[in-house]
Write a structure and sequence with these properties.
- The chain is mostly helical and about 260 residues long.
- It has a single domain (about 5-255), classed as Orthogonal Bundle (ABC transporter involved in vitamin B12 uptake, BtuC).
- The protein is built from twelve helices and no strands.
- The longest helix is centred in the last third of the chain and has 27 residues, at about 220-250.
- The radius of gyration is 18 Å and the shape is globular.
- The protein starts with a helix and ends with a helix.
- The mean pLDDT is about 85.
């Protein structure tokens, strides 16, 4: 193996860990019709991490704890409001995202490094993750799939919201808001429309591989490159699957679910 390509193993592992947990979460998001909850919770996680860094600058775990705490509180609020106002839940989620984003901008207004911090929260820095960065996410992913194996329907109730917030708050510092959102939604759409979870995992992993390789070879921003790669691979997968279904005479997955 090329030594330089070996450096992509940790970023690829980070993407795979996020993909493994966000695929079932994304299926729940589509089923519940709360499409933009990830953006809102991810923005809250970024805001909580920044607040914690400013209040406790010398504490190594401050940003992770702050991001997790605010994300869990925000997700709990979304869950409560979704039950009280089911018809207006997307509007509430959108307002929560906008509010968190504006508070973040105000906090960064007087910071000379504001541009870098904002770009980091949105795009992440997946190429430079370390093994220690992945340990909390790996532990939670293992526990997540153990529960998924023991109780396949465990995400169907209110437990979804705190679990979702915890995983998003762990993922955003590694991948950024945009990549976490696309990892949540694009593979779940593939699973829903074009072949189930195995197809979604294959398309998601292909998107990460292609995006990371392009970002490394061309010195492009990794987060944005992987986002576009995931989108392109998902569209290609859906197109090929629909064409195959059409010309083989079999009903599409979407028509079968309707």
């Amino acid at each position: 193996m090329n030594p330089e390509l070996g450096l992509l193993l940790l970023p690829l592992t980070a993407g795979l860990l996020v993909l493994l947990t966000h695929l079932p979460l994304g299926e729940q998001v589509l089923r519940r019709g709360i499409l933009f909850i990830d953006l809102a919770v991810a923005q809250l996680a970024a805001l909580g991490a920044l607040l914690a860094q400013q209040w406790w600058p010398g504490l190594a775990w401050a940003s992770l704890l702050g991001g997790t705490a605010l994300a869990v509180l925000g997700a709990g609020l979304v869950g409560l409001l979704a039950r009280r106002f089911p018809q207006q839940r997307e509007a509430v989620i959108g307002l929560l995202y906008a509010g968190a984003a504006c508070v973040l901008l105000l906090l960064l207004a007087s910071d000379p490094h504001a541009g870098h911090l904002l770009a980091s929260s949105l795009n992440g820095d997946i190429l430079w993750v370390s093994g220690s960065d992945l340990l909390p996410l790996a532990a939670i992913t293992l526990l997540f799939w153990l529960l998924q194996w023991l109780r396949p329907d465990w995400l169907g109730g209110t437990l979804f919201y705190p679990v979702f917030a915890l995983l998003v708050s762990l993922s955003v510092p590694l991948l950024g808001v945009y990549l976490v959102f696309v990892t949540l939604i694009a593979p779940a759409l593939v699973a829903q429309l074009a072949g189930g979870r195995w197809a979604a995992l294959c398309s998601g992993l292909s998107g990460y591989l292609a995006g990371l390789a392009l970002a490394w070879a061309l010195d492009w921003p990794a987060g944005a490159t992987v986002v576009l790669s995931l989108l392109l691979v998902s569209v290609c997968w859906l197109t090929v699957y629909i064409l195959w279904r059409t010309y083989s005479g079999q009903p599409s997955a979407s028509s079968g679910n309707s």
